[in-house]
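Tokenised fold entry reproduced for everyone:
>
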Amino acid sequence: MSRWMIACLLAVVGADAPNGRSEISESPITAADREHWSFRPLARPEVPVVKDAGWCRNPIDRFVLAKLEAAGLSPSLAADKLMLIRRVTYDLTGLPPTPSQVDEFVRDEAADAYERLIDRLLASPAYGERWAQHWLDLARFAETDGFEHDYERPNAWRYRDWVIDALNRDVPLDEFVRLQIAGDELLPGDAAAAIATGFLLCGPDMPDINDQDERRHSFLNDMAGTVGAVFLGLQVGCAQCHDHKFDPISQADFYRLRAFFEPAEIFKDHPIELASPGATKSQGDRIAQFRKLEDEIGEVENIVRQRLRIENPDFQPKPSDLVKAFSDVEKKRHSAATAALTKLKNDSQLPPIPLARVMFEKSARTKPSRVMIRGDFRRPGPEVSPAFPRIVNATKLEVIGPSSGSPTTGRRSQFAQWLTRPDHPLTTRVLANRLWQLHFGKGLIGTPSDFGLMGDAPTHPELLDWLACELAAPRVESRESRVEATTRAWSLKRMHKLMLTSATYCQASGQRSAVSGQQKTPTQALSTLDSRLSTDPDNRLLSRMNRQRLDGETIRDAMLFATDRLSPRSGGPGVRPPLPAELVNTLLKNQWDVSPDEEDHRRRSVYLFVRRNLRYPLFEAFDRPDSNASCPRRNRSTIAPQALILLNSEFSHATARDLAARVVATSGSDPAKQVDLAYRRTLARSPDPDELRLALDFLAGPSDLADLCLALFNLNEFVYVD
């Protein structure tokens, strides 16, 4: 009998049980279940022996070359320096290299020139701004709730800024993960650690729903499903209503995982104590008073809510219903606390109390967690305790209850510690694969958030395990690797450098091929390319580099960067540049109030306001996800609106005019010099003779330099990186 049939039978049994309180019955985890590649214990594989060892720059290349040689293929020649600096600069910073940076790198003949280039890029603040967007896609970050009203979240930006800062500081990845799960428990009183837990609260929400129990149930389910997908690479959310159809994850497993997060208050912006010039010594006292008043208000409302439900169990009181039901004493108590809280918030003599959407547990006491029969929040089933998913808990490690006097349950901190064990078979593999995917365009696993039975098998399983081990417990490979020696575990920047300095990453994407270090003739090169395309059409064996299209955010930033007008401002609430008039006319009042400072309109795309129900047009055309669900890999479509918006939008025309003005100011009135600089600022290279002739002929006609700049922004070469 299949797991799915068993799940259906159990669901029927649970549905018929009195009060929904049946005992938990679930299929045991078998040895066969643990044989799936992703559930096997993590072990560092031996680096393979290859024939053409001279091609290899570090162990990554040996794993790749072993597969190529077995298939009778050879890798491509290395990309030239122009191609390489453009590729790696976009990759790490989301911005193009400047003409002077290109010249400096091309002239630098030192053996470590490329490594120093990588070091400079990793040290740039632009690195965190670029790589934060990848993580925010996973976190489903937005600054509004979504759904019909799409209410704003005025403090959501704090989490975005935390991610950028953490990446720039190279916070170890295990700590990066732990803080987002349980920063408030692991570092009590640390505002930044609390803000990190905003990861759990990024999802969409429906605050105006009639039944607040349903609201909480849906939000917690989304939270647990996202944690399972992002960190474990398992679609645990499929087990909300029944046992997973294919993976060894029961419905009880899902609700045990959800139980880690249930004790927290999840729908409030909580006060945090920031160490800043605006903070005062009394800030901590004000925050304590803030929480005391909130507790007072909540206690009165809960008393009335429970009384109303006793009178009518099906009644879901709204705030206005509570006010009407207050007794005189309750009304006086509630009004006094509300007035005091309002005064505390709006005291003009003191700096505002900083707020953030963070996880917060009032105490170690909490209601029991339950399995919800068929996923229905109105049908609580048997009680469950927090527990690690059985399929990745072969040692049956148990969650310990809170110690005496503990301020919180301590559940999430235990989950965070378990999740980041160096030998964890899923977390390490998932993180290593995500990094590989972002550098190479495709992961070693093509389904980066599904390592289960229905996900893809790894193309290079030994390489994936080697990278996972290297991530969690790096070892110096000094004899063959030119990567900076370090024994620091979980360093993301170290893993960047390891991958970027590999010969695999430095391959060309075109028709060149390497055999014993010799360049082939054009006919031979074409023959070799045909062989690769026929043997490995999807480049699963990595015999060449994948061309990658820039995403919408990078296209916008690159256009502004080319004009020298990209604002260096960073942080703070999301900004709102002007939108096309035809779009503004469809919006509700105050849905997109344009930021008053024009310089903010030219800030990096990561700082633009993220509204779930309204994506910035350029981003939407180039496949930005809607942030209602975790996005492990963006779509890469080719559709007509992309060409139309790049050619016809007011942003494109204004940016083209700005670039033309910058070119003239720098190169003077010589048309040839103008064309050369326009090419270098957009494509990181000079035009070839034919391109220069065509551009000069173009300028000699009725068109002007701004038209040429607009044409360059619309080139395939501008939007794609080889």
Remarks:
- Residues 283-311 form the longest helix (29 residues).
- The longest strand covers residues 380-384.
- The two ends are 50 Å apart (CA to CA).
